[in-house]
Design brief:
Helix content: 25-40%
Largest sheet: 3 strands, antiparallel
Strand order of the largest sheet: 3-2-5
Distance between the termini: 79 Å
Shape: elongated
Radius of gyration: 39 Å
Number of helices: 7
Strand content: 25-35%
Structural class: alpha+beta
Length: 245
């Protein structure tokens, strides 16, 4: 047994749902299953239709296509889509960016100046925040030290730099030849305090100074770029790219 859905031709509303043996049997003798059947005013479907329409070519009842739903006002196209009536298709164009709005007349996305200016401001503010973090990461990169054929790592953070600078100043003032306790990590990632003489300290200080100079120069270049780049350039900007050894 199966259910047949009978629709009024005039209103296209489902007016009856008789249970039949098969759709083929109903088609042969519809009045047997539905005595009120009138082929002049009724159509039937084997499935329940949400948006029924009579096909002009076949004369049969079927579900509307998406194009027909748009034409009839059953559905409304969202931004980025338009009806191509020549080819009977719905064309969808992906939104290219956040600062464009859909023009229904030209069927195209167009830049909105207010949105683009707002987005550009947001991108620049975020880039400046990211820049501060990128510079800090670059400045604080660990440095390798070699002492007595052993390799150590100097944790190049602000605290350790300041501590080293203070110790070196005292060393120059007191005319000492070495610093006995420089905090480092050995190859097992354990903290040690090693002794560095003047020449070894100069090598380490030079590495730190080189990093500082590169960081300052990179920051200046990034700031200039951020202030001048257009919205497309800002969208693809990675401020970390400015900081290269």
């Amino acid at each position: 047994m199966t259910v047949i859905y009978i629709y009024s031709i005039n209103s296209l509303e489902c007016i009856a749902r008789p249970t039949v043996t098969t759709a083929e049997e109903f088609e042969k003798n519809p009045n047997l299953f539905y005595p009120l059947w009138d082929e002049k005013t009724m159509k039937f479907s084997e499935t329940l239709l949400n948006n029924p329409i009579i096909d002009l070519k076949t004369g049969k009842l079927r579900e509307m296509t998406e194009v027909e739903k748009v034409k009839s006002g059953k559905t409304t196209l969202s931004d980025g889509s338009y009806l191509d009536e020549v080819n009977e298709t719905i064309v969808t164009i992906a939104k290219p960016n956040e600062w464009s709005i859909w023009d229904k007349d030209s069927h195209d996305w167009k830049v909105d100046n207010n949105l683009s200016n707002k987005k550009l401001k947001e991108l620049r503010e975020k880039a400046l925040k990211d820049l501060a973090e990128a510079k800090s990461n670059f400045l604080n990169q660990p440095l390798e030290i070699e002492k007595d054929s052993k390799k150590y790592t100097f944790e190049n953070n602000e605290r350790n730099r300041n501590s080293l600078s203070l110790k070196m100043s005292l060393m120059w003032t007191l005319e000492q030849d070495k610093i006995e306790k420089v905090k480092v990590q050995n190859d097992k990632k354990m903290v040690e305090f090693i002794e560095l003489n003047r020449s070894e300290l100069k090598v380490l200080a030079k590495k730190i100074q080189d990093i500082v100079e590169v960081a300052d120069m990179a920051e200046q270049m990034a700031v200039v770029g951020i202030s001048r780049y257009n919205i497309e350039q800002m969208s693809g900007l990675n401020v970390s790219d400015f900081f290269q050894n």
